[in-house]
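call fold(seq) -> tokens
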Amino acid sequence: MSKIIRITSFLFLFSFLCSSAIVAQEEKNRHLVAADAAYENQQYQIAIEKYKKGYSKIKGRKFDLKGEISFRLGECYRKNGDFRRSRVYYYRAIRFDYATINPDVYLYYAQMLQMNEDYEEAIEAFNKYLEYKPESEIAQKGIESCKRGEEWQENPTGFTVENLYRINSSNDDFAPAYADKFYSSIIFTSNRKEEDAEQKTDPWTGKPFSDLYYVKKDRQGKWGDVVNIDKKETVNTEANEGAPVLTASFDAMYFTRCEKRKERKAGCKIYKSTRSGMNWGKPQEIQLGSDSSDVFGHPAINSNETLLIFSTDKPGGVGRKDLYYSEFIDGKWQRPLNLGKVINTEGDELFPFLRNDSVLYFSSNGHLGMGGLDIFRSTKKDGKWQKPVNMKYPMNSVGHDFGITMQPERDEGYMTSNRRGTRGDDIFYFINPPVEYTLSGNVIDAQSLQPIESAEVKLSNIEISNTENGLTDAKGFYSFAPGQFDEESSYLVEVSKPNYFTVTDTLSTVGVMKSTDFEMDFNLERIPDKPVILPDILFDLGKWDLKEQYQDSLQGLIQRLDANKNIVIELGAHTDARASEEYNDVLSQKRAESVVEYLIKRGINPKRLVAKGYGERQPRTLQKNVMRDSIRFEQGITLTEGYIDSIQSEERKEIAHQLNRRIDFRILRKDFVPESKFTGSDKESAIALIKDPSSNKVNYLPGKGVNILLPVIINGYTYNVSYSKNFGDLTMSSNFAKSLLKKGLIDKNDFNESAIPSLKRGNVPDQSRIRLDEVRIGATSLRDVEATVFNYFDGEIQIGPDFLERFGEYEIDEENFQIIFKKQ
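ret:
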């Protein structure tokens, strides 16, 4: 384990001397007296040697004295960073019942157990401490930290942390700071041994005095050699220097210097040095206190050098070491003020770092953490620092994590840690790669299982109404790149293709803290040419009210209508043939109306719904094999009245009747324009009773001259088509044909081959033939209809009697402006 406390004592990781009762000096031998003196002066390594020698000279039981010495040895090892030995001596002090004199032994013992990941024993020791000091927040947080530590390690954040072995030494290297505007070099603290250099050893630590060092990366990102920033003893002296921070312009540096003294505890001060080229000027002390033994360290500075945040143990603070701030007003630094209890605790707060003047990073062992010092982040809001947030694992560990520096706009930088695997305090590089999201998947035809090319995929941010568009390739694949997503957002994914039902799904980046590749596949169902039978919806004999248990059968239809807001459907109800035609017509109409009423209650616009009762007039033709109650009906059977009467088994006959009793839907139009609101009065248009459900009446508009305008649905879109008694078939202008091409209602494959060269030039040739998938007038549809293009046709589209007769025998009711198709 690192000797972090020992090495950084001169950089203000100084320790708080216990307020425990001290055994009378006359009871101590000369070795113990000398050890106490070394301890008071923070000469912990010397104190350890003398305490051990003095302990061996104690005669008799003297448990109080042995307990105190054991505790002091635990403190010395703790402050020198040897947590394993520290734990041993704290435990020995507890065995001597030293906790009755100073209960803090349980607190420190618990912390050492925690840092060694002995969580169960640590919790027990924290609870023992709470028996003496039940209000202790640091102990309560310690217990919670033991519980959270394992959880955080099992669920790491997005940060990656890497030891910079290339620049770290076998001694301690810590507290890095960026040294240039390109963020390609750092200045850091180290007490490394330099070859061919006369280095004096700090008698308090047993290691060389610390200095500031510089290292730079080359263009390939490889670190160069580490060099001492100053061989002239301008910045680096015989004292200990460290914990640097550079100004926003990188032309000045604030750092800590702890003076070299032999007889008493040295004070630590903050200095500022200005750079000229590669040379540093004589440092100037930042005047924050008058006592030469005061300890101020770990400076953090804002962008315009008007705010200085630092750490000190001056009296009147919240805990042992607190963060304070001073403002530069009228040419001088003002009296330091405590940052308050939101930031400071009864523990230690050290190594502050200001990012963009609004985010404070610091290390603490008083907030909820993983053990030792953890790095925390606090954001300034409305002039106040908010509750600190633990940076969690892997930024933090059960060891000490401190001395962070970061780039202004990227979660990237350097920090210090003595976690497992280090040779002391080591500098680590960290980065939190930008959280990026992608979405990809395949769109497949649900019936053929073949990929669908050129399906449109829309990715819509629900919060900000922003939409990204994509198309599937020849293999049905689509994708959206990271730049098309936002964090903490919800998205609607919509997939559409002409002649297919549109499908939608949702995804969310809310709470997704790591880069994620979302995958979503879609199966599109073709819009059917024939009615689609809904799942079983059964009615009581002679009843038409929709039972609650069958409402779930309509959920799929509701979802489809919600996703395809441009379609208008007909809900058709069918009965069996066991009553009169007139009775079944009325009963089926009421059943259809019952379903429509339910859909309206669920928010479907009534103008998109048509209820129609077919009675017994359309016996069902099975599109696939059907199994009911172990009775099988083969695909292709039409359940006519004659077929059912021929069935010998009464059970089979009853099931055949059940199969005829059904609710289905079919697409009437694909060009409905969604409305924001609809009123209850709209309901009547959807569920009006059709007394003669086999009739087909179509309202028309009077046109110019002898023409009338008839609503005709072409490939799912409604057009007012001119009808002339003096005309024959279906004809359209070239401009109208071009409009169908632009809408995607037809494509090149719908033209005869001779028209292709003209289409490539943007023209539709005269007298070319076009195939239309479906033409519907009223309740009747024709498939694969041919239309002829005439370039000089004065109009858009026109039909005549020959074409209209293909829909059945008809008559024109000029008084009511209707074309009536007779029963077929």
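Residues 1-24, 680-694 have pLDDT under 50 and may be disordered.
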